[in-house]
Target: ABC transporter permease
Amino acid sequence: MTVFKGYLKIIKQNLTYMISWIFIFLIITLMMDSFTSDAQKGIFRAESVDIAVVDLDSSTLSQGLIDYLSLHNQVTLTDGDQEKLTAALYYRTYAYVLTIPEGFGSSFPDGGETLKATKVPGSTEGYYLDTQTDSFLNQVRVYQAAGFDRPEAIEKALALSETEAPVTLKDSSGNGGEMPGYAYLFRFLPYLYISVLCYCVSYILTAFNNREIHRRMMASAISPASQNFQGIMAFLFLFMVFWGISMLLPLIAGYRSFYTGGHILLYLANSLLMLAVAASIAFLVGHLIRGDNAINGITNILSLGMSFLCGVFVPLEFLSDGVKKVSQFLPVYWYETTNDLLGSHNTLSAEMQNTVFQGFLIQAAFALACFCLTLAVGKLKAQEN
Model:
């Protein structure tokens, strides 16, 4: 088992790198889970924006509009000095400047004077506040059309904006409408697998493909078949240890419910197939690329590229249709599709089960294709040598 021990020796040299990546991965995953959980569990609050209002009308309607905007924003009344307001917008002291012209109240709702809004170019806050302003004025317009006078219409519009509607989340998925914490951990596994395995496998193959070492191995008493078998066993040992450690991450992160969940076998199968995909890509990169700088560059391109395109860093529902069409040709997309289904549903329908197994088959087919391509590349390189 001399060759096997040689592989293990090189793997040991990369042990610090692997542990560091796992530690960093765990920290990032816990942070992302914390942010996402806060966003899901938090109570909705309207965004508060700093607004400057120039009220040249001083009417009941203009005061009602100011009161309405003040409910959800920081409103400052100003004298209308354009130079100061322009500077304040430039330095982001205010995100929005609203000028209410003289005669606006008396001409409402029949037209006449219109509001003038100045906002930071390209800012979402400006459009958000345009919507708030239009919403209030439309409510006043509706109440007046219903027969209420101006003060009553303004009072009812303000009261309506302060109304809180209780919302009950219907638990149709069995997870309380939320993704379990370990689902976010599994979401980021492809980046960990591809990053670590591409580097480690490529480093090991580069070391054993060194001309001097290769000649010594060819001259040794160990047959090429035995050398290949020991190499395969060493890589299998590396992959299974790495996969086993990654499956302990839910326990380390405090997600013990993962081990009692109904989808644990599907999670294990999905992650194991993703490991096979990452390993196949790593072998292909290791046979094609030489040199540490080139390996690092290709590893970063593959891991980050697939992560951004396939829903690792950005959830699939936020990706455009064009990006999704491209990402469907990549195995990480099908891993993430399966992971999202498992995380959002305690019980899978027949259609969902078909989607899960379709994802499994596509990942397995991609891994097999990569391994076959690697064998072809390895055979060509052997003929060249």
